[in-house]
Amino acid sequence: MARISPRKRQVVSYNEDSDEATAKADRSSSTSSKKSKSAPLPSKNTGKRKLESVAEVEQGSQDTIQPKRRKPKAKTEESTMPLAERTPVSSLKKLMYIGAHVSAAGGVQNAVSNAAHIGANSFALFLKSQRKWDNPPLSTEIRDLFINNCKEHKYSAAEHTLPHGSYLVNLAQADESKASQAYKGFLDDLERCEQLGIKLYNFHPGSTGGEARPAAIARIAAQLNKSHKATKSVITVLENMAGAGNVIGSTWEDLRDIIALVEQKDRVGVCIDTCHAFAAGHDLRTPDAFNKTMAAFDEIVGCKYLKAFHLNDSKAPFNSNRDLHANIGTGFLGLRAFHSIMNHDGFRNMPMVLETPIDKKGPDGKTVEDKQIWADEIKLLESLIGMDPESDEFNEKAEALQAKGASERSRIQDQVDKKTAKDAKKGSKAKAGTKRKKKSQGSDEESD
């Protein structure tokens, strides 16, 4: 296992530049060494610690250079102790592997310890900076640290790690040069997966860019076919989307049509994001609605393609096409939806990843990330396995969480209602204008 620095860890972000963070640390070390007036330097440490300052010490007739020893900072309990102990999955009534999308700042190997820190049994991460196209290659050192950390913490990288693709990549891109750039970035991630022993790779299908949907879907499938031939084993996992604008993947039919054009069917799958599904009109709130939605998915796409879940409640109401993640039980989906998921036999052994918000205001008024939220949500979801949904325990939890999210739901509902009214008014005006135009044309024909 890599040595853990006692310094304060970076705040988790889904927009992290993991390799960039490493580069910054390296530059910092380089600057520090240049400032040193002593010629010989101590041997380079493993990890990212800055080189210790050196001082001359006279001993008799010889001058020797020794590193100045600094008193190590005491590690705080918060930085060294797990926020929650991992629950042995074998002890659960159903084998549900619940985790979160954790930080990979400083290198992908750190995602493993970050997952263990919150008591996760699965995890997602970015394999490189998702803010830029060009990233340094994965080093053998980082690769080995990731693999060793997974072994030490007993994570199956192949089964329960779900990297998330870059938001820059659009495999439906029609422009030739942009499509080539997207493919290059996509393939690079798949190659990193294979180096790390990761089997599943989640990504957003893409956007039509205003082009015809069937043609855009065909381009996505063509890029997948090309990437499958260039790699050996990674399963490319399509994520369903909320349905805004030209985005592809909000309907089960979109996912079906992409898969239909993929040549190696064993190299493609689907990840259901519960917030996206709900926002796109796939209801999960009651047992009956949940069963109907999953039956429709099975009929249209096929449950054999379901590989993973993103577990998120929704701040936005049903069929609103708004992608606004809420904490479990606090949104419009409610706790009952997640009870159905946690107790469905067909979802066993899949990575189930939280992407819920963990931002909160610190004592100084600045926004900080509270990873305890994820640790608590993992335990909450695990507690739902086998729980009676009619019990007082369940109802008390559900009511408390709904009360907690009431103001935010009301705020977003108000936004949606205003937009709906505005769109309806705009539609009425357009309809009235069309009628007046037709009436005017009719009058002109009569006068002729």
Q: Residue-averaged pLDDT, rounded?
A: 85
Count of structural domains: 1
CATH homologous superfamily identity: Divalent-metal-dependent TIM barrel enzymes
What order do the helices and strands follow? HEEHEHEHHHEEHEEHEHHEEEHEEEHHH
What would you report as the Rg, rounded to the nearest angstrom? 26 Å
Physical arrangement of strands within the biggest beta sheet: 4-3-13-10-9-7-5
Total strand segments: 15
Q: Specify the overall morphology.
A: globular
Distance between the termini: 89 Å
Proportion in helices: 40-55%
Could you say what the CATH architecture is?
Alpha-Beta Barrel
Beta strand %:
5-15%
At the first level of CATH, the class is: Alpha Beta
Q: Which regions have little confidence, pLDDT < 50, spanning 5+ residues?
A: 1-78
Keywords:
single chain, 448 residues, alpha/beta, TIM Barrel, seven-stranded parallel sheet, 14 helices, 15 strands, 43% helix, disordered N terminus
Task: Describe it.
Residues 113-383 form the Xylose isomerase-like TIM barrel domain. This is Apurinic-apyrimidinic endonuclease 1. Belongs to the AP endonuclease 2 family. One of its GO terms (cellular component) is mitochondrion. It is globular and about 75 Å long. The protein has 448 residues and is an alpha/beta fold. The chain has helices spanning 18-35, 77-80, 109-117, 140-152, 157-160, 176-196, 213-230, 252-261, 274-279, 287-300, 335-342, 372-384, 392-404, 406-447; strands at residues 54-59, 62-67, 97-101, 122-124, 200-203, 206-207, 235-239, 247-248, 268-273, 306-311, 313-314, 325-326, 351-354, 359-361, 367-369.
